[in-house]
Write a structure and sequence with these properties.
about 650 residues, alpha/beta, eight-stranded parallel barrel, globular
Length: about 650
């Protein structure tokens, strides 16, 4: 089941070119950046002003919601105003539930986006038994409803995005395929086959989910399916409902970055619960991380691929202390470059020492290990924090654990009987090293790379270990120098997230020089693990990025909910501005807060409605009471 040109050596997957107005997507075109307005589509002036801010930030394609026929008709006024002010940026009409609005918009704008989950279906969360005959009858019904739009797009030269959302799969798809990446792909393919039957091919595809694992697996499965059927439509990449702030940026970079590293993707949208112009710099930083990657040093190709790219399977490893086996990935921090290490230094890693109580307070996001190099630690540290020294320093006093070069590991007899961390790159994997690792139950590899395509080289190293039946746990290290905090956040999220999503890695070690503070790096490490769903250490917010359909102030509401609930470790809260993805995304959240009318909120427990039409000023309190009623509430420590 092939889904990219190579798992190891970077090469962009070649798709057909689709023209969206004056912009080419796919083919030999650069990867395009787009975003979506959050204004009311009927407010022409505000939508135009916001569109201009987006364009000036570098947005190449503007998406605008068209929830009704009236909104769709107003796209002409918006487009005319933009042209009058000197802007020819293509517009995409975003359609849910309303085929008549899509048919109007397709005659006005350069592209329409349809969601196959709700274009011809209404979601009632019903499980329906289908025979092949009744299922085919449903497909015929959809064909009748969808074909008029296809013919209009073909006549007017309008492009189309068939955009599947994990949160809004139809009851029909869910009944036959379940809540799966396979179901997402089939949802799009049904609509795509109708387009092909009409000889219409100006199509772009997307597979969005707020769960990065589901999102990555769905896109890979889609490309695999296209390859099988001789198709090569361009891909629009995005993590939907990624959220705001650091979490939204990290989650987007993990999901989108993983696929970009596979060579997939022709246009990207970073979905943040913020003003749309904030999304563009994040998207550009993500693309800049992969700039010139095709000129990397060639990596030895694989003969046998043991990886599971379409479902999550964690690599099986030995357990060495709290690393590997069934343990969550550890976080390792770096203090080796510090001039001096004091108890106060550890505050940044989640350890706060109280002199009056002579006691350490440990946060949820406290690093598991710290590498101190050749430093002396002459004070007591909390018992759960492991200290790692350079081998020669460790050998002098036998405290903590040693970090050895491959040469030291293979030649030195004096080693720890508990844990030995071996620093290695792919080129170090000699037969002698592999033979020793295979038998050594104290070894942990600390892998590094200096290849421009570090993801490919480190993936190749993991494949070598698996194919040689070596179960040594692996801490992934990547080094960064002289980057802004924002670029470090994006680059590290893409580099580490892509491997963790493939079930590879038992620890994370972000090694930096002149990039960010210890505290920021520590939070980033935990954020990457949370975004890749390998270690949960805080509340997760599945928050949509807002648009003209939104029925309340998403940024303000998200901040309000976060303030009250950010201490609920492991609880997932969905905050949806409207009903489009609300109920569906509740499948991936424990609790849902969904706008269902102006100033009205409906609360969900997973997919089930608990309370409807709560006044907005009472809704956050009602949400907290719902969490309490289900036993997931704990009081906040102040």
């Amino acid at each position: 089941m092939k889904y990219c040109n190579s798992l190891i050596n970077y090469s962009r997957f070649k798709t057909r070119e689709v023209k969206v107005g004056n912009i080419g997507i796919g083919g030999d075109n650069p990867i395009r950046v787009q975003s979506m307005t959050i204004t009311d589509t009927m407010d022409t002036e505000s939508t135009v002003e916001e569109s201009i801010r987006m364009i000036e930030a570098g947005c190449e394609i503007i998406r605008i919601t068209a929830p009704s026929k009236k909104d769709a008709e107003n796209l002409k006024n918006i487009k005319d105003q933009l042209v009058k002010r000197g802007y020819s940026t293509p517009i995409v009409a975003d359609i849910h539930f309303t085929p008549n609005a899509a048919e109007v918009a397709a005659r006005i704008v350069e592209k329409v986006r349809v969601n196959p989950g709700n274009y011809a279906d209404k979601k009632r969360f019903e499980e329906i038994e289908y025979s092949d005959e009744t299922y085919n009858a449903e497909l015929e019904r959809i064909k009748v409803k969808f074909t008029p739009l296809v013919r209009i797009c073909k006549d007017y030269g309008t492009a189309m995005r068939i955009g599947t959302n994990h949160g809004s799969l139809s009851d029909r798809i869910l009944s036959r395929y379940g809540d799966t990446p396979k179901g997402m792909v089939e949802s799009a393919m049904e609509f795509l086959r109708i387009c092909q039957g009409e000889d219409y091919h100006d199509i772009i595809l997307s597979m969005k989910a707020s769960n990065t694992r589901v999102m990555v697996q769905a896109y890979r499965l889609l490309v695999s399916e296209m390859i099988k059927e001789g198709m090569n439509y361009p891909l629009h990449l995005g993590v939907t409902e990624a959220g705001e702030g650091d979490e939204g940026r990290i989650k987007s970079a993990v999901g989108i970055g993983t696929l970009l590293s596979d060579g997939l993707g022709d246009t990207i949208r970073v979905s943040l619960t913020e003003v749309p112009e904030n999304e563009i710099p994040v998207a550009k930083k993500l693309l800049s991380h992969f700039h010139d990657i095709n000129n990397h040093k060639k990596i030895e190709e694989i003969i046998k691929n043991p990886l599971s790219s379409f479902e999550y399977k964690k690599r099986k490893t030995n357990t060495v202390l709290n690393i590997g086996g069934k343990n969550v990935p550890i976080v390792k921090a770096d203090f080796s470059l510090k001039k001096k290490i004091t108890p106060a230094s550890f505050f940044a890693l989640g350890y706060n020492y109280s002199f009056t109580l002579d006691k350490w307070h440990i946060a949820d996001m406290a690093a598991d290990y710290v590498f101190v190099g050749d430093h002396n630690i002459d004070f007591e540290l909390p018992g759960n924090l492991g200290v790692i020294y350079n081998y020669k320093k460790w050998k002098d006093h036998k405290k903590g654990y040693p970090c050895l070069t491959v040469k030291e590991y293979l030649s030195q007899e004096v080693q720890s009987n508990k844990m030995n961390i071996v620093y290695a790159c792919f080129s170090d994997l000699s037969t002698e090293l592999k033979d020793k690792l295979r038998l050594d139950k104290t070894a942990v590899l600390l892998i590094d790379t200096y290849n421009k395509n570090g993801i490919g080289e480190q993936r190749r190293l993991f494949i070598e270990l698996i194919n040689n039946k070596i179960k040594t746990p692996v801490i992934i290290r990547r080094s960064y120098r002289d980057l802004s905090e924002e670029q470090l956040q994006i680059s590290a999220s893409a580099d580490f997230g892509s491997l963790f999503l493939d079930g590879l890695g038992d620890g994370i070690f972000i090694y930096t020089q002149n990039c960010a503070s210890d505290q920021i790096i520590n939070f980033l490490s935990f954020g990457i693990l949370q975004a890749s769903r390998t270690r949960v250490s805080k509340t997760e917010y599945i928050s949509c990025p807002s648009c003209g359909r939104t029925l309340f102030d998403l940024q303000e509401t998200t901040a309000k909910i976060r303030k009250q609930t950010d201490h609920l470790k492991g609880v997932k809260i969905g905050i949806m501005g409207c009903i489009v993805n609300g109920p569906g995304e509740m499948a991936d959240a424990d609790y849902g807060y969904v706008g269902t009318g102006k100033g009205k909120i409906t609360l969900y427990k997973e997919q089930s409605v608990v309370e409807k039409n709560i006044p907005e000023d009472e809704a956050v309190t009602a949400l907290i009471n719902l969490i309490k009623a289900h036993g997931d509430w704990v009081e906040k420590n102040h």
